[in-house]
Amino acid sequence: MAEHNNNILDRYTPGARLNHWINAILMICLALSGMSLFHPSLFFLSELFGGGVWARILHPWMGVLAMFSFLGLVIRFWRFNLWSRDDSAWMKNINHVMSGDETKVPEAGKYNAGQKLVFWSLCVLTILLLTSGLALWDSQLGHLTTIEQKRLAAVVHALSAVVLIAVVITHVYAAIWIRGTIRGMTRGSVTGGWAWRHHRKWLREEVGKSK
Description:
Mean pLDDT: 90
Strand order of the largest sheet: 1-2
Structural class: mainly alpha
Number of domains: 1
CATH superfamily: Transmembrane di-heme cytochromes, Chain C
Oligomer: single chain
Low-confidence stretches: none
Order of helices and strands: HEHHHHHHHHEHH
Number of helices: 11
Strand content: under 5%
Shape: elongated
CATH topology: Fumarate Reductase Cytochrome B subunit
CATH architecture: Up-down Bundle
Number of strands: 2
């Protein structure tokens, strides 16, 4: 690998990276516009979208686009995020991961247990946000739900959004904390050293394919 590929492995295709960044931008816009509608003290954020009226109009449409964009990520990556016994053992020994000693946990495939938890959490939260958001979309679907259902949907939507923002912050922090990770989603490749340290099982599979 070092001789033929300059110790670099392809991790994400251009299409996967584009899909990821479109989804990331949409989620940021949704978070900002949603917060502007959530509380008067945050209403100033609506100016990023042209004012309160436009923030209210654009928010649900951006939500629909984000849903389709996230569906693309699910189709691409779900099979790599299936849970295994090694993932359970990885979680039980996560203290070693936090201390930087990953030799004491099972070798990770393309994604480790922490990344899989983020993936499936986002799947569940996206479904909750979509269904509750549709119930609140009065201009298009208001006649399909009762006042009581809208009230419940508002609570579910707000709580799900708060949890999703926390999950995304954790995801971004982990990507920054583990050096070399962001490269995968910007350049589409990672170094052999990064793969050996953090995703050794995946590295073995990739080298096996090249052979």
